[in-house]
Amino acid sequence: MSTTSTLARAAAPLLASGSVLAHPGDSSAHAMAFFEGLVHLLTEPDHLAMLGVAVATAVYVVRRVRARRQGSRR
């Protein structure tokens, strides 16, 4: 299986999840505006920690893929 198809299969549930009710009192009719959601994401410590983990994981994967590609070209 190619890396692209593996990544696509891993990302599919994220794209198809729709609205997730993460906090009490949320509903699709009263969902926060995009900017309010972004501010919430960037001001909550637990959200920032998960964002940091996601960024660190992405950097690690990109570096590893690049290193493998460089090794296979030699």
List the SSEs and their pairings.
Elements: H1 3-16, H2 34-43, H3 45-73
Index terms:
mainly alpha, 74 residues, elongated
Word description of this protein:
This protein has 74 residues and is mostly helical. The chain has a domain at 41-74. It contains three helices and no strands. The longest helix is centred in the last third of the chain and has 29 residues, at 45-73. The mean pLDDT is 78.
Q: What is the structure about, briefly put?
A:
Helices cover 72% and strands 0% of the residues.
- State the oligomer: single chain
- 3D shape: elongated
Radius of gyration: 17 Å
Instruction: Please give the share of residues in helix.
Output: over 70%
N-end to C-end Cα span: 23 Å
In DSSP terms, counting alpha (H) and pi (I) runs of 4 or more, how many helices? Answer: 3
Number of strands: 0
How much of the residues is beta strand, in percent? Answer: under 5%
Class by alpha and beta content: mainly alpha
Low-confidence stretches: none
Averaged pLDDT, please? 78
What profile does the largest beta sheet have?
none
Spell the H/E element sequence. HHH
